[in-house]
Design brief:
seven-stranded mixed beta sheet, 2 domains, Rossmann fold, Coagulation Factor XIII, Chain A, domain 1, alpha+beta, six-stranded mixed beta sheet, about 425 residues, about 35% strand
Length: about 425
């Protein structure tokens, strides 16, 4: 499969001056004296992106994501290294980027199309589709400087997807759109994927990244921290962000710890069917997880309205002053669907010393869920809901199929609902029965 994008040892440096006068000093000395410091936004990046691949880029603000996309778009040149880009590139980078604010939306459609190599006739053929998708009404004939941020991104996205790009760059711009437009955009992204368009997608919306990413690159301080299968990279990224947040909260708060009583199960489960990824400081560990019915029998298939017990056993290897046992339920797209823990449910476990074992049973009645695959990720942490350190987390320890119910489920789940016809609501009492 042909690579459309190739980075080889790419680095990008910006010159940082303490004052405007320092820049002038460099100019008048013809750069014989240096009055700036080099800030390296990217450091030694090497990777390839093949045709039809959806390549996601994640990382904290300031890690170099936007700089990377601007290099692919040809807006910036690398300081060192080489970049090869093959194919027509459509970029949705910053709000209204590439738009002349004095021109009308219509004029900017033609301007952007011409920049991307389309003839006036080709733009004429696409203009109605662009206008209809953007849905900004008569504002299409007004100067772009009068647009709201949402209107600007609507038009920019519509232009980008209708110029037959071979490579589409999307940099967090969809975050300013309303939920209706974001849903339409994500559907369009899926259509472009199916059509073989190569997509570079930058977003802080981890759910979107999981849903569309074939591979994911995690940038940290301008360097590649991790790159590969999306689920694995996301798991490591979230683990690092959780640990970073825990350290920050520990520095800000020192809440008093309280202890209480919880009825733990007498049995200890010591089986972990699967470990996709595991992280934590190791002061305590999950030693087993099981999903059972109320009779204690292992569940092989989940059913709507089924009553289940999620049993998790943990063991302390060091002192854990405020243990908190919990789990996360993920759906077939890898999205965190629901989760809970002992503190969230009102149970405060007593402190644990090395060798202590706790087994917590979570009794659940399943709602009517979409018949997909669901996984359970168990965890043990030390601290409160707002200030804690992760001791052990296991991604996707158990995976089970949700069976089909009697009726179709629209979306992810069916909410319990009572229907009344021609009723009148007054004083909290429904009439017309």
């Amino acid at each position: 499969m042909k690579n459309l994008i190739e980075f080889e040892g790419v680095s990008k440096s910006y010159s940082i001056y303490e004052s405007p006068g320092d820049r002038l000093k460099e100019l008048i000395t013809f750069n014989r004296f240096q009055f700036h410091k080099d800030f390296w936004a990217l450091r030694d990046l090497s990777f390839q992106i093949s045709r039809g691949e959806t390549f996601c880029i994640i990382g904290e603000n300031g890690c170099g994501k936007s700089t990377l996309l601007q290099i692919v778009a040809g807006i910036l040149r690398p300081t060192t290294g080489s970049v090869k880009v093959s194919g027509r590139v459509a970029a949705l980078l910053e709000l209204g980027s590439g738009f002349n604010p004095e021109f009308s939306g219509r004029d900017n459609v033609y301007l952007n199309g011409a920049i991307l190599g389309l003839s006036s006739k080709e733009i004429d053929q696409r203009y109605k589709q662009i206008e209809d998708f953007a849905e900004i009404g008569p504002f299409i004939h007004q100067p772009v400087k009068t647009y709201s941020s949402g209107m600007a991104v609507r038009l920019a996205f519509s232009v980008a997807i209708h110029v037959d790009p071979e490579i589409l760059l999307v940099d967090e711009a969809l975050a300013v759109g309303d939920i209706y437009f974001r849903q339409r955009c994500m559907r369009k992204v899926h259509e472009l994927r199916a059509a073989g368009v190569t997509i570079l997608f930058v977003s802080h919306a981890i759910g979107d990244v999981k849903a569309i990413g074939d591979r994911t690159l995690w940038l940290d301080g301008g360097r590649i921290r991790e790159m590969g299968e999306t689920d694995k990279v996301i798991s490591k990224y979230l683990a690092a962000m959780t640990e970073k947040d825990s350290v920050f909260l520990d520095l800000q708060h020192h809440p008093e710890r309280t202890t209480g009583e919880i009825s733990t199960a007498p049995e200890v489960v010591e089986t972990i069917p699967n470990i996709d990824f595991r992280h934590g400081d190791g002061r305590a560990e999950v030693i087993g997880i099981a999903v059972m019915n109320e009779q204690g029998e292992p569940v092989q298939l989940l059913e709507p309205h089924m009553r289940i017990v999620v049993r998790i056993s943990v063991r302390a290897k060091h002192e854990v002053r405020t243990p908190n046992i919990g789990f996360m339920l993920r759906n077939h797209l890898g999205m965190d669907f629901a989760g809970t823990n002992t503190i969230r449910e009102g149970h405060q476990l007593p402190p644990m010393i090395p060798g202590d074992i706790h087994t917590a049973d979570f009794h659940l009645e399943l709602p009517e869920l979409y018949p997909g695959i669901f996984s359970f990720s168990p965890a043990i942490a030390d601290g409160t809901l707002t200030s804690y350190k992760m001791c052990d987390w296991i991604d996707n320890a158990i995976t089970l199929q949700m069976g089909h119910g009697e009726a179709q489920v629209y979306g992810f789940l069916h909410m319990p609902c009572r229907v009344e016809l021609n009723s009148r609501l007054s004083d909290g009492v429904s009439g017309g029965r």
